[in-house]
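To: structure subgroup
Subject: Chain for Friday's discussion

All,

I'm putting the inputs and outputs inline so they're searchable in the archive.
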Amino acid sequence: METQEGEDRTPLLKESQPGTVPACCSARYNLALLAFFGFFLLYALRVNLSVALVDMVEPNISLAKNTTSNVCPEHSSTINVPRNTTGEKYSWDADTQGWILGSFFYGYIITQIPGGYIASKIGGKLLLGFGIFGTSVFTLLTPLAANLGVGYLIAVRALEGLGEGVTFPAMHSMWSSWAPPLERSKLLSISYAGAQLGTVVSLPLSGLICYYMNWVYVFYIFGALGVLWFFFWMWLVSDTPETHRSISQAEREYILSSLKDQLSTQKSVPWRPILESLPLWAIVVAHFSYNWTFYTLLTLLPTYMKEILRFDAQENGFLSALPYFGCWLCIILSGQIADYLREKQNLSTVCVRKCFTLIGMIGPAVFLVAAGFIGCNYALAVAFVTISTTLGGFCTSGYSINHLDIAPSYAGILLGITNSFATIPGMVGPVIAKNLTHNNTVGEWQTVFYIAASINLFGAIFFALFASGEVQDWAVSGYHLHRN
């Protein structure tokens, strides 16, 4: 593995000292920044329903009202009545709410592998752009759909999922042409960190919009911003360094020379070797396990805060966002640390990926279980959930970008495959959790946390055993590992 890393590194440092192509204002970092804002909006569009739903449902429908009161004392110091109650209320029970929250993922799972495949053929720019544009348009239609009936709302959420499904494979596909191997962790962690910050900002902001305005504006505001981003993306970005309008010659040379031995020129996709690749299945298992915890918390944290810990909607938004703020910071920092460890030749790629994945999955499991055991200690509950989600940020420089290490040419397709499996938790996790927490007791929520923690633990161990950091021989031209 060490020799392999040496081989990857040689063309980089021979052709260009890093100082000659500064990161500041470079085309690749501009791409990372625009992608950052794209994923920011993508996640804002995805999670705003979790907060708005609390306001969309008639209070007495929540079975919890009777059972909550004797679990924890009322916590809020503020008056628990929204300023604005003009928003329509619907009588959806807990199971219906579970299906509404899960419906997004039914669309999302369908477009993962096609997204990766299409991106490898036509490039990621159009696919990512129109994916976010479509999601934004359907978000604008959400209030209308809710008025027409629960079936329409589920359909619109599923269509949003279809649009979002292509985005990660398309982005991975673009980075396979744009990210020099020793800058991968940095560039990808910047672009994907937008997802966490989108969650951070949209949870409290949605809470405030529901509180002061009306829940329909949650969908109108974020939807409109998504449409605006689309125009900037189409104007400023290009699929490859060769086709970029304003990239400097030095940067173009630097990127192309660093990738020259890593990409495959063959047109057909080697499906069989891909599906037989154990390092790919290691990513699949890790991705599935991590997402189980992530999606369960993402969709149900506002409910847990409201029904068990008894925070009101306004506090709820801010406190629900805190864990994702920690995760965002962790993603940015861990990306820098990961590339530092690799570039200074201290650690091989596979060692960095495995270590970061272990920290990012076992850490959250421990603190998540702990969070279920502290009863009504609000400060500790919020602290433990925050630490749990923050540590998860290490995974972005672990399994999350390992696709680009093992097969840069097919990174979009590989991400489509792993993300398809990793979307299943988004579909079944919240539904199972809602079914396990009918009475909203602390004991029921402990079960939800136990399940998430044990799945995390399994995924971490599997990845540590079977992951790889080398370009696989089926992923380069002529089916052989390059040798300098």
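Points worth raising on Friday:
The CA atoms of residues 131 and 163 lie 4 Å apart.
The radius of gyration is 22 Å.

D.
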